[in-house]
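Note to self: the last two entries modelled the partners one at a time, which told us nothing about the interface. This time every component goes in together.
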Amino acid sequence: DQQVKQNSPSLSVQEGRISILNCDYTNSMFDYFLWYKKYPAEGPTFLISISSIKDKNEDGRFTVFLNKSAKHLSLHIVPSQPGDSAVYFCAASIYGGSQGNLIFGKGTKLSVKP
Amino acid sequence: DTAVSQTPKYLVTQMGNDKSIKCEQNLGHDTMYWYKQDSKKFLKIMFSYNNKELIINETVPNRFSPKSPDKAHLNLHINSLELGDSAVYFCASSADRASGNTIYFGEGSWLTVV
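The predicted structure of the combined assembly is written out below.
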């Protein structure tokens, strides 16, 4: 039973354009969401997060949007750069619940072509 | 300086052996974790320790035993290794339980059981 779903295993984008990575969740108790980026042979690196009390959080080229009614969040990267090529994991948790028990999606591999 | 470091990075071993993966964090964090990424690329929590005390123990065979000699270390011992134990094991840490949702990962340990 996948509580966090990333339905696109891969995404290819031209450099300079926008990358949009999507994530859906099923557990309405989730109230904290994170995106992690992972390069081959390295551990996931925290990228950006959003609390359920917000619908948008922005950090430089990265923006995360949360639509609670649709149980959907997305990560926008603009402009995309070749160095952004990596696997992006969406994760969710219940803040104050089982701390550290992040539920991860399967990841989306982003390729940014020069 | 690597914030969360784990050794070995690669380990190939035979079925039935006992092995350990070590993890150390120099971030001063109170909480440490072990995550497993299996062949289907799912990243799932195995254990969570806060100040050397076990918080989370997901459904993991008791052949896996975490040991936390101090809050900066969380080692993973695996007894009687099986083929299905082949996976990437990630150590991680976070500042404390309350804000435990932003987790910092190590680079991973690739375990192959033959």
